[in-house]
Specification:
mainly alpha
């Protein structure tokens, strides 16, 4: 036994605190690498989720547009569309329809007819302004006014 004891004393033995520190540093480095990798994957997942939502919206819009176009195609294939186009674009009518043609016209301006001049208007035109007013309010007094020849 003494030989085995002498061999073990010649080899340097690492201190237990140094081994623990080294293992702790390696463990911390591995944890940091894991955390960085995990946050990068979370960010990528969030980005893919947003992109997925945008694609779902585009698919929904395309589906709605397809339904609208399908309904329009069915209407164009129908007899109602053919009749409407024949009436609107070609000016055709069905048997039994009454055709009304609207002719646009410009209205003629109303020309007032000239008023016949009466004796009172000629008589009033020759009077002074105050006499015309007086005669409007007191018609009988105008005949008895002096200077009213």
């Amino acid at each position: 036994m003494p030989t085995s004891k002498s061999l073990s004393t010649n080899l340097p033995t690492p201190s237990p605190t140094r081994n623990i520190r080294l293992a702790l540093v390696i463990l911390i480095v591995l944890c940091l690498i894991f955390i960085v990798s995990y946050t990068a994957r979370l960010a990528k997942r969030a980005q893919l989720g947003v992109e997925s939502h945008q694609w779902e919206e585009r698919i929904e819009q395309a589906t709605q547009k397809r339904l609208v176009l399908e309904a329009e195609r069915q209407y164009v294939d129908s007899d109602a569309y053919v009749q409407k186009e024949a009436r609107d674009e070609l000016g055709m009518a069905k048997a039994g329809d009454s055709i009304v043609i609207v002719i646009p016209s410009t209205p003629t301006p109303l020309i007032p007819s000239p008023e016949p001049q009466t004796e009172t208007t000629t008589k009033v035109a020759g009077q002074a302004n105050w006499q015309q007013w007086f005669e409007l309010f007191v018609p009988d007094a105008g005949a008895t006014q002096p200077g009213n020849d």
